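Subject: Sanity check before I submit

Could someone independently write out the structure tokens for this chain? I want to compare against mine line by line before I put it in a report. The sequence has 87 residues.
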Amino acid sequence: MARVEQKHLEGLIFRTSEKKEVVKDGQKRNRYFPVERPLDVKDIIAERDDGNTFHIVTADGRKYDVSKTPQKSGGEGGKEDNGKKGK
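---
Independent answer below. Compare away.
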């Protein structure tokens, strides 16, 4: 069984947040700001090999179907599975 490699994750985004202390009304408060960065192999919490594709789940809760063969068109490397079934 093959493993997901960084080359399979081209074009996929990992979304998280960063905590920053801000001063509001003279008091320190924590604010969380959204951050996006390229998806890394260490962000994958589950993967399944399904022949020509990998099904992966990332730490930010997103699910992707990633092709094992590189895309020839410069599009993104995987398709997000949002749980909705089409006809």
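---
OP: Matches mine. For the report I'm noting this point. Strands lie at 13-24, 27-38, 44-50, 53-58, 63-67, 78-80.
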